[in-house]
Amino acid sequence: MFINLEELSTPQVYFTMTQTILPRPIAWILSENKNGDYNLAPFSYFNAVSSDPPLVMVSIGRQDDGTKKDTLANVMERPEFVVHIASCEHLPALNLSSATLPPGESEVTRGNLETEAFEGYALPRLKAAKIALMCTVYAVQEIGNDSQTLLFGRIRNIYVQDACTRVNAKGRLEILPDKIHPLSRLGANQYSTFGEVLFAKRPA
Ligand SMILES: Cc1cc2nc3c(=O)[nH]c(=O)nc-3n(C[C@H](O)[C@H](O)[C@H](O)COP(=O)(O)O)c2cc1C
């Protein structure tokens, strides 16, 4: 079948896109609320978009009432945030953190999640996350007809849990995906677990 997006409403387009562009990585973003505690929320319109400078991009929609989501409001006030790469075992906590709480109420506190200092930076990282990217806001751009905002973050530092790394025979640092078990997003309320690792050499 062919699906002509021009014949669909915006929610239908969303459901179609999220069920066809998959799996998607999830940015589990910690930012600082006005009152000094921490906001946490997942975003799967997310990816790496540049290496020089090292940039990630997250696309943030509006709340149902048209106001900014807390993550966006927070980073526009205090331009730092931490992107965690969640592991499969984090799904319940990640899902809970997507609830809309009143502004200033902390999903970190609500989820009983522990944080740990990200050395050299003001914001902490989630202790349970095996990868955390410390980012500063690089650019914010409004797009589309539906008040969508692209947030570009410049990665300043990357934390990787030591147990998920090794130095290979050539002396190179390797980060081991089978120790990380990254969680990914499918359509609707579906997620996928980490599967088999396949290898393929790039053609010459
Ligand atoms: C796995 C997952 C992925 C999500 N991806 C996005 C996304 O890419 N963009 C978005 O605006 N909302 C996304 N959401 C919804 C937000 O997480 C939700 O609106 C959240 O309440 C925003 O929190 P905040 O207001 O604290 O920033 C996603 C939710 C889940 C569970």
What does this structure look like?
- This protein has 204 residues and is an alpha+beta fold.
- The protein has one domain: Roll (Pnp Oxidase, Chain A).
- Helix content is 16%, strand content 37%.
- The protein contains five helices and 14 strands.
- The protein has helices spanning 10-20, 70-77, 91-96, 107-110, 177-180; strands at residues 24-25, 27-32, 38-43, 46-51, 54-60, 80-85, 115-117, 124-126, 131-143, 148-160, 165-167, 173-175, 184-185, 191-192.
- The strands form four sheets. The chain has a seven-stranded antiparallel sheet.
- A hairpin with a 4-residue loop joins β9 (131-143) and β10 (148-160).
- The chain is globular, with a radius of gyration of 18 Å.
- The termini are far apart.
- The relative contact order is 0.19.
- The model has no long low-confidence stretch (mean pLDDT 95).
Supply database-style keywords.
single chain, 204 residues, alpha+beta, Pnp Oxidase, Chain A, three-stranded antiparallel sheet, 5 helices, binds flavin mononucleotide
